[in-house]
Task: inverse folding
């Protein structure tokens, strides 16, 4: 159990260690205009060892952000464009025959990298999605008879296009649950858009992203993130939020009962706690406060709540439900 | 005794002589013969009749044919074959056949059947003789019936007319009914209002944590909290939790806000929006952050900070009170 001096000492360590977060943000800001929300969520995923699902229309710099993040962290980056004819072997690798040696050798797939961009993950059939999601969960890949550990940090950043749903393979609920965060990438504001135009049209050479943090630092920071102190009251607050998604009537949200087909799983509680710790770390705090929970609640829960037909008919989204829950649950 | 027996013999022989005399009377014999012949020939003499209700119809009009067979000895000579009219015969069509009625009367049986007929061809058409056979090989026939079917004169028929235009009927205003509806709606609205108010009251009931409304009570509560000596007992977390609760409850009531679901940052924004950039609030905001550190990070502030916390809370309460006071003016 952490004592007051432990937390103070941790607080100081975090204030010192988390400086790289600002460096990372600044470095990414060189090439990415706006999208601070998305960048912060990617950093939360990076620091709490959780994968991130990005959803947004094309052209919102999702790929550029992830690529730049990989460059800034000095990690190996690979991009997999998911298509309907993609095979699991195209993702994880396969055995190929070496004629000169007269033997089969392993050819590793693009999943053997630190940062994987699974572009338009819902365009590939279920077996390919499963291959990727299994690797995400187990952090290892089996090719033929050999099992290979994936190198840390291993972060999958998948994108989904909310438009053009025809011919797609929506991720099953159980597999979406494996993503720690589902981030909705929004449009930039007017000022940001003006800057983007200037940057892209006036022929300026895009600045290159420099390496500002090592993978070792990231792995060490992950340990610190786990040590961030979470008070019992905060834990209770998380439990209340997740339970309200399961049993809304017990929290004075009876009208929501017909809107929710299933609520957040225990994985939702775990990820909410982990992401809140990472958020506190990014804000240079060694302890979690209710603001951290509220800040990331939507990203953790939006893909973990099932809507009923009634909710869909009334255009009620999971975001609306989460807002209602956060408005109702008493803050400690 | 002998006399008596003779008398009785004479008496008994007398009527015998009379009977013989009666039977042997010629008129009586003739009467019996007539009676016998009448009974033997008329008792079960089957008859058939076929009648129509009218014998002149226009094309398509219907007539009713009634066939009646009477005086049938059902025990010895029942019908073995009832007549059978085809559906269409001799320009005449059968529209409907009623079932055969059986009527028993005085030991004899009567059968009757009604048949509705029509014809769509003009002319004189004949319903053939209707034949009924009996078990004793006897058969009887009804007389054929002629029907005259007359054509319809269509030269005087009027042309078809289109449907008439819809005539708008002016609705009659039923003021009594409208009054009843209005009264029902008003009663319903009152019921709904009362139910909603009841449930709202029920919902709102648990929200207020404290019943403190006046500044005097709040300041007294703050003094009482300090007097509890929680700091000396190292119960900093409890002290700051209660301190912030008192302040939030008072501001909620005075500013008509609900801050129980607000984090510290959200609460500060809410206060700023309500009161504006009041410099005195800065100390209270610092107090809120300190309370967060105590509540969520086990931070133990020095005792002087705890005394300052009470002072900042009192200042905050006074600020809210002054704000409300000046607003009312």
Result:
């Amino acid at each position: 159990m952490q004592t007051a001096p432990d937390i103070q000492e941790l607080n100081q360590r975090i204030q010192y260690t988390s400086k790289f977060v600002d460096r990372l943000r600044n470095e990414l800001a060189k090439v990415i205009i706006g999208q601070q929300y998305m960048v912060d969520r990617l950093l939360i995923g990076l620091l709490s060892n959780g994968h991130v699902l990005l959803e947004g229309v094309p052209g919102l710099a999702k790929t550029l952000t992830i690529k730049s993040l990989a460059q800034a962290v000095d990690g190996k980056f690979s991009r997999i464009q998911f298509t309907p004819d993609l095979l699991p072997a195209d993702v994880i690798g396969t055995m190929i025959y070496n004629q000169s040696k007269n033997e089969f050798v392993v050819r590793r797939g693009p999943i053997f990298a630190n940062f994987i961009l699974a572009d338009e993950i819902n365009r590939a059939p279920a077996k390919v999605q499963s291959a990727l999601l299994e690797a995400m969960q187990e952090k290892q890949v089996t090719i033929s008879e050999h099992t290979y550990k994936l190198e840390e940090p291993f972060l999958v950043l998948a994108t989904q296009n909310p438009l053009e749903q025809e011919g797609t393979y929506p991720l099953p609920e159980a597999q979406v649950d494996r993503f720690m965060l589902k981030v909705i990438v929004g449009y930039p504001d007017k000022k940001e858009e003006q800057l983007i135009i200037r940057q892209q049209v006036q022929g300026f050479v895009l600045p290159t992203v420099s390496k500002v943090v090592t993978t070792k630092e990231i792995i060490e920071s992950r340990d610190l993130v786990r040590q961030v102190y979470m008070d019992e009251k905060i834990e209770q607050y998380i439990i209340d939020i997740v339970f309200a998604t399961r049993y809304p009537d017990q929290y004075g949200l009876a009208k929501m009962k017909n809107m929710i087909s299933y609520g957040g799983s225990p994985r939702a509680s775990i990820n909410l706690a982990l992401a809140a710790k990472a958020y506190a770390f990014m804000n240079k705090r060694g302890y979690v406060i209710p603001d951290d929970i509220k800040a990331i609640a939507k990203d953790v829960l939006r893909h973990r709540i099932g809507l009923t037909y009634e909710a869909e008919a009334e255009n009620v989204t999971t975001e609306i439900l989460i807002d209602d829950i956060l408005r109702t649950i008493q803050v400690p | 005794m002998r006399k008596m027996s003779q008398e009785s013999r004479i008496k008994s022989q007398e009527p015998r002589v009379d009977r013989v005399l009666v039977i042997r009377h010629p008129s009586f014999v003739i009467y019996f013969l007539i009676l016998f012949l009448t009974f033997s020939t008329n008792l079960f003499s089957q008859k058939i009749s076929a009648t129509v209700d009218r014998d002149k119809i226009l094309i398509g009009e219907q007539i009713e044919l009634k066939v009646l067979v009477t005086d049938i000895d059902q025990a010895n000579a029942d019908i073995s074959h009832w007549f059978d009219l085809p559906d269409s015969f001799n320009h005449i069509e059968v529209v409907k056949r009623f079932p055969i009625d059986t009527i028993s009367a005085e030991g004899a049986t009567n059968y009757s059947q009604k048949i509705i007929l029509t014809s769509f061809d003009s002319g004189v058409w004949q319903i053939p003789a209707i034949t009924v056979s009996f078990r004793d090989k006897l058969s009887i026939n009804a007389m054929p019936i002629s029907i005259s079917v007359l054509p319809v004169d269509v030269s005087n028929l009027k042309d078809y007319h289109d449907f008439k235009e819809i005539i708008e009927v002016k609705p009659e205003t039923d003021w009594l009914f409208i009054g009843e509806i209005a009264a029902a709606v008003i009663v319903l609205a009152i019921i709904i209002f009362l139910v909603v108010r009841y449930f709202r009251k029920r919902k709102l009931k648990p929200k207020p944590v404290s019943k403190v409304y006046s500044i005097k009570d709040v300041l007294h509560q703050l003094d009482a909290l300090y007097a509890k000596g929680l700091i000396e007992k190292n119960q900093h977390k409890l002290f700051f939790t209660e301190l912030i609760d008192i302040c939030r409850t008072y501001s909620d009531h005075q500013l008509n806000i609900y801050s129980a679901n607000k984090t510290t940052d959200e609460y500060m924004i809410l206060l700023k929006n309500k009161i504006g950039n009041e410099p005195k609030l800065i100390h209270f905001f610092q107090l809120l952050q300190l309370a967060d550190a105590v509540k969520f990070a086990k931070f133990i502030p020095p005792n002087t900070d705890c005394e300052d916390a009470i002072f900042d809370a009192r200042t905050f309460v006074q600020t809210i009170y002054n704000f409300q006071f000046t607003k009312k003016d």
